[in-house]
Amino acid sequence: MKICVIGGTGFVGTQLITTLVAQGHSIKVITRRPERNRHLKTLPNVKVMSIDFFGNKVLERQIDTYDVVINLAGILNPSGKNTFEQVHENIALRVAQATQAVGTPRFLHMSALHADANGPSEYLRSKGRAVNKILAIEGLNTTIFSPSVIFGHGDSFFNRFAQLLNMMPIVFPLTCASARFAPVYVGDVVDAFINSIDKPETYGKNYALCGPQTYSLQELVQYTAQQINSKCLIVPLNRFISKPLAFMMGLFPGAPITLDNFNSMSVHSTCSNESQNEFTQILNVQLHSIDSVVPAYLAGRDFTGQMDVFRSQSRR
Question: Backbone phi, then psi, for 143, in 5-degree steps?
């Protein structure tokens, strides 16, 4: 197939594109960040297009004749013109509209777990508004994926906490320590995307993607500390202290946490049994635990992961 991926230069996009190429597909990657696409240019049958303006007509010309369009464009924190509204809502809607306009048979979209137009954070609200608008487009064969935090080689979750633990070797004050997550392996997310392409029963569906176990944020940070042999004392902070601390840390370069991140974590990033069954059975995915993956790349502090963290902090 000919597959066009929007925003494919990041962590999930790289894994997805690598897998699609191995399966023999031809890929076009459309990105706003040309400095992050060097690793993709070495892959066979991959064409990278850097565009600054995501207008409908521009996108239609890029998407036309493709069999599948996948939108992965997303940000964790806004920066300059890259606001939540612009990236999560406006660009996503334009990509979906362009896909429908040229008659591309299939559209896949990355959202976030518990995205909701009335959610507690602008991150979740912008993702939720996008989902509502995309699903309202008639004649578009859409499937939406809403994962919990994603882990794997090169991730910015476990690698990021490992970096922070090394920076604070004595005491690590942890905000939102009781927030709960069901970390999902990037390979399982990729499988869900690919396995859905030829499944008409997934049209118009929004799948929650979670890993096999749930943890508090404190448990995940303690797990990270164990993997890197950190003796740092992890001190959970209550909500009264966490909220102003998140606001202040959001002002720091690299923003380890922001007030919007704090608000997002007021909703547990976990799945119901029903949605978990849909993920594994309808999408035919065999879930991986953090124990089966994370120790292999945290043991040596995974160079790729460190570089991804540094690039994220410098917006490169």
Answer: -130, 135
* Dist CA 243 CA 3 (whole Å): 42
Say if CB 152 and CB 13 are below 8 A apart.
Answer: no
Q: Which helix (H) or strand (E) holds 143?
A: strand 142-147
Q: What is the CATH number of the domain that holds 140?
A: 3.40.50.720
In a domain, 67, yes or no: yes
Number of domains making up the chain = 1
User: Which runs of consecutive H residues, i.e. helices, occur in 68-157?
Assistant: 84, 92-101, 122-135
Q: For 290, left (φ over 0), alpha (ψ -120 to 50), or beta?
A: alpha
Provide the residue count of the chain: 316
* 281 inside domain: no
Tokens of 226: 């164990």
- The two tokens of residue 172 are 């690590």
CA 7 to the chain's CA centroid = 11
Q: For every one of its 316 residues, what pLDDT tens digit does the chain have, with 9 covering 90 and above?
A: 999 999 888 899 999 999 999 999 999 999 877 666 678 878 899 999 888 777 889 899 999 999 999 999 999 999 888 899 999 999 999 999 999 999 999 999 999 999 999 999 999 999 999 999 999 999 999 999 999 999 999 999 999 999 989 988 799 999 999 999 999 999 999 999 999 999 999 999 999 999 999 999 999 999 999 999 999 999 999 888 888 888 887 777 667 789 999 999 999 999 999 999 999 999 999 999 999 999 999 976 544 545 554 454 444 4
Q: Which domain holds residue 31?
A: 2-147
Question: Which helix (H) or strand (E) covers residue 26, if one does?
Answer: strand 26-31
Residue 237 lies in a domain: no
The phi and psi torsions of 63 (rounded to 5 degrees) equal: -85, -30
